[in-house]
Specification:
This protein is an alpha/beta fold. The chain folds into 3 domains: 81 residues, Winged helix-like DNA-binding domain superfamily/Winged helix DNA-binding domain (Arc Repressor Mutant, subunit A); 103 residues, D-Maltodextrin-Binding Protein, domain 2, CATH 3.40.190; 103 residues, 3-Layer(aba) Sandwich (D-Maltodextrin-Binding Protein, domain 2). The strands form 2 sheets. Strands 3, 4, 5, 6, 7, 8, 9, 10 and 11 form a 9-stranded mixed beta sheet that branches. A two-stranded antiparallel ribbon has the order 1-2. Helix 9 links the parallel strand 7 and strand 8. The N and C termini lie far apart (55 Å). This is LysR family transcriptional regulator.
């Protein structure tokens, strides 16, 4: 082999950052040394790995082909190093991306379990919408994603983790709050405050509601669930949110779950990871401990 792990590390850092100077900073190298390593790698492979678009370096077809293989080699090399020095095969960092509902209600307990049983594993967490988590996994910003709903992309593997249920809620003083059932015609007349497009909650809700109502009066759209809860609790709006996000507020009388017999919006929370990713014991550990956690303490939906 004519290429080195250092050259692959430079390639990977430039792919992540889109910049030789940022890659040099990430690797604690000089810019000239970083540029030289990248040039040597391209020369040895006989293919250009990047093309310049504006101020950024973008992967060529050959660079995209090399990227998962380089990441695999670098991860294996890191595992060998930490395994010999620390005698902990399950050690190192995993980058986890999650949508809001699992991030707020499930992942803190999961991280606590990992910290207790596998103290050498470090977990960095990014909280974004489902579509952004999917993009982050595809762009290598996350090693593992936890999302709401389904993803249809053959570049990803998906494994169900647990089930979730969405509820339509109003304030206690809303005209619909005292009704035994709420009709589709009444929902069509209501003002709605919803999650933003791209969130798993919004996608699941629209998939269910638009079979019955073609045009909702969506008054506001927000990314943050606490904003939506507060607006609905204090205003004339309806919303659709996960059970886990409204349970305590319903019990406290701040929100009321509306009975809409035509709608039963169930969905899955799932793990997603790149299909071309090699075996990764840290990813496997997170998935395994997450499933064990749900078996010990299943959610009541």
């Amino acid at each position: 082999m004519r290429y080195s792990l250092k050259q692959l590390a430079v390639f990977d850092a430039v792919a992540d950052s889109g910049s030789v100077s940022q890659a040099a900073e990430m690797l604690s190298l000089t810019q000239s040394a970083t540029s030289m390593s990248l040039s040597q790698l391209e020369k040895m492979l006989g293919r250009p790995l990047f093309e310049r678009k504006g101020k950024r370096l973008i992967l060529t077809h050959w660079g995209s082909w090399l990227r998962p293989k380089a990441k695999r080699l670098l991860r294996d090399a890191k595992q060998i190093e930490t395994g010999f020095y620390d005698q902990h095969l399950l050690s190192g960092e995993i980058r986890l991306g999650a949508s809001q509902t699992p991030a707020e209600h499930l992942i803190p307990d999961l991280i606590s379990i990992i910290d207790n049983d596998f103290p050498e594993i470090r977990i960095s967490l990014g909280v974004q919408s489902t579509s952004s988590v999917i993009s982050g996994v595809l762009d290598y910003r996350y090693d593992l994603g936890i999302i709401e709903g389904r993803v249809d992309d053959n570049r990803l593997h998906q494994e169900p983790w647990c089930t979730d249920h969405l509820m339509i809620v109003s304030s206690a003083h809303h005209p619909f709050a005292k009704r035994e059932r709420v009709s589709m015609a009444q929902l069509e007349q209501a003002k709605w405050v919803l999650r933003e497009h791209g969130s798993g909650t919004r996608t699941a809700f629209e998939s269910a509601i638009y079979d019955h109502i073609a045009d909702l009066d969506v008054w506001r759209e927000y990314e943050h669930i606490p904003v939506i809860r507060r607006m609905v609790a204090n205003g004339p709006y309806l919303t659709c949110l996960p059970y886990l996000d409204v349970e305590r507020y319903i019990e406290a009388g701040k929100l009321v779950a509306l009975n809409v017999p035509e709608l039963n919006i169930a969905r899955s929370l799932s793990f997603v990871w790149r299909a071309d990713m090699a075996e990764n014991p840290l990813v496997d550990c997170i998935k395994r401990e997450g499933i064990r956690m749900m078996k010990r303490h299943p959610m009541v939906m």
